[in-house]
Every structure is written in structure tokens, then in C-alpha cells.
Amino acid sequence: MIRILAAINQEPGAMPGEGLTAVETFSYFVAAPIALFLVISLITWALTGEKKSSKVSNSSSITSIE
Question: 34: helix, coil or strand?
């Protein structure tokens, strides 16, 4: 009965394959987006983090405030 109802709602000419398993669904729609977000965040943090500046003895009060 369920296969008949699923077939009724398909577009003409559609040939659907097998469904995803629970592990595949979780990895594609939960784990992968979270991993991508963390990787992009880490790269952004690493590239825009505070830079350690070396102390220059001839620094000017115009270019730095201490």
C-alpha cells in the first residue's frame, strides 16, 4: 500500500532509487554541515587572529599608543 502511495506522488518519468540509511542521513545533513562550519571557522580565526608585534625601540607615538 505504501509503495502505491509513493508511486502516485512521483513526477512522470521519475525513477527513484533506494532511500538513505539513518547513518547516511545523519552524516550528510548533520555531521557534514557542522564539520564544514568548524573548518571554515577555524581557518577564519587563524587568518584574522591578533598578530604578535615585535617591540621596536624606535617606535613613534604617532604610530602606536602604549
Answer: helix
- For 10, other C-beta atoms within 10 Å of its C-beta total 10
Residues in the chain: 66
Contact between residue 16 and residue 10 where contact means Cβ atoms under 8 Å apart:
yes
> The whole model's pTM is what?
0.56
Helices (H), 1-66: 2-8, 22-26, 32-48
Per-residue pLDDT tens digits for 5-41: 655 677 888 888 899 999 999 999 999 999 999 999 9
Q: What does the buried/exposed string (b/e) look like for 17-27 if buried means 16 or more CB atoms within 10 Å of the residue's CB?
A: eeeeeeeeeee
